[in-house]
Amino acid sequence: MATGLIALLDDIAAIAKLAAASLDDVGAQTAKASLKAAGVVIDDTAVTPTYVVGLSPSRELPIIWRIAKGSLRNKLVFLLPACLLLGTFAPWLITPLLMLGGTYLCFEGAEKIHAVLSGHGHADAAAASTVDPATLEEQKVSGAIRTDFILSAEIMALTLASVSTSNTVTQVAVLAAVGVLITVAVYGLVAFIVKADDIGLHLVATGGTVGRAIGHGLVKGVPVFLQILAIVGTAAMLWVGGSIVIHGLAEFGLHQPEHLVEGAAAYAQAVVAILPQVVHWLAATVVQAVFGAILGGIVVLVITAATPIFKTRKT
Predict the structure, then answer these.
(1) DSSP at 76
(2) Largest CA distance in the chain
(3) DSSP strands (E only) in the chain
(4) What is the pLDDT of residue 138?
(5) Environment class of residue 147 by beta-carbon count within 10 Å: exposed (0-12), middle (13-18) or buried (19+)?
(6) Is the separation of the CB atoms in 138 and 63 below 8 Å?
(7) Which tens digits make up the pLDDT trace of 14-59?
(8) CB atoms < 10 A from the CB of 61, how many?
(9) Closest listed residue to residue 158, CA positions, set 74, 109, 95
(10) CA quadruple 265, 266, 267, 269: dihedral, nearest 10
């Protein structure tokens, strides 16, 4: 009896060690996958605050919460099972789908630039000001969740690629962990960004000398920061989208764009003597963003040219 109990305890100890090792592996894989998705995370963080611009301050946090819930639903309900099915039955589809998502990001970035250069952005803002606030909020939230779906798909696909050799349980755990971790981090930061001016007003009203100084800085600085963030978001769309498409082309044997990126980065690193790794990364990022802008611009031109044709056929 004692021998059986000792054997049972040994088995329990072995299972506990295995579980602990698995948890360590999931933690390590989650951290690794999160780092790989860092570029998309920057894009997501920079883009999301723009969806509450022009809406009532009292609706900012509820809107962010709605978008965050939609983001979690995108990742855990739709994308996680889809990633597992793709990884099991059609792994060859992952790269084309990543490239399709990357092309969409390039299109969105180029469309934003086109709107600014053509003046459509001001017209859209004027049109939005005439829309009922509840309708405008629904439009903003649905647009944000739709864009988030693309970004989340990129995050989940990059995560799946990093754990493709792991067992199914580890893949599920890492995909879920990355999805939750990134959503909490992104939308927690976004919530702080959009309410920073309110925090500043509170500090101005109730703080001491230092608090009031910080408050004044927040009140004056947040609008400028949001404008900069909108520019960063557009640039990040082009960079992330361009880099995904370039790496996808390389996987299909078309290495010239990737060689162009590496050649430009190596040249910049050789010319600039300081911080070589930073210079290399910056140069590669700029070239990828330019590629993304060109690709997105082509898509914008095609859609612009095709839209009247489809409208004519409908009528």
Answers:
(1) I
(2) 86
(3) none
(4) 86
(5) buried
(6) no
(7) 443 443 444 444 555 555 544 555 556 665 666 677 667 666 777 8
(8) 15
(9) 95
(10) 90
Rg (CA), the chain: 23
What pLDDT digit, counting tens, does each position of 147-187 carry? Answer: 788 778 878 887 887 777 777 888 888 888 888 888 888 88
- Reported as a single tens digit per residue, the pLDDT across 187-240 is 888 888 888 888 888 888 887 888 888 888 888 888 888 778 778 878 888 888
Q: How far is CA 135 from CA 64, 125, 129, 130, in A?
A: 16, 14, 11, 10
3-state helix, strand, coil in the chain (%, to 5): 90, 0, 10
Inter-residue contact 253 to 207 (CB < 8 Å): no
Distance, in Å, from the CA atom of 307 to the CA atom of 300, rounded to the nearest integer, reads 10
Instruction: With beta carbons less than 8 A apart as the criterion, state whether 186 and 41 touch.
Output: yes
The length of the chain is: 315
Strands (E), 102-166: none
Phi/psi for 53 (5° steps) reads -65, 130
Q: How far apart are CA 45 and CA 151, in angstroms?
A: 11
- CA torsion, points 307, 311, 312, 313, in degrees to nearest 10? 100
Q: Is the CB of residue 306 less than 8 Å from the CB of residue 299? A: no
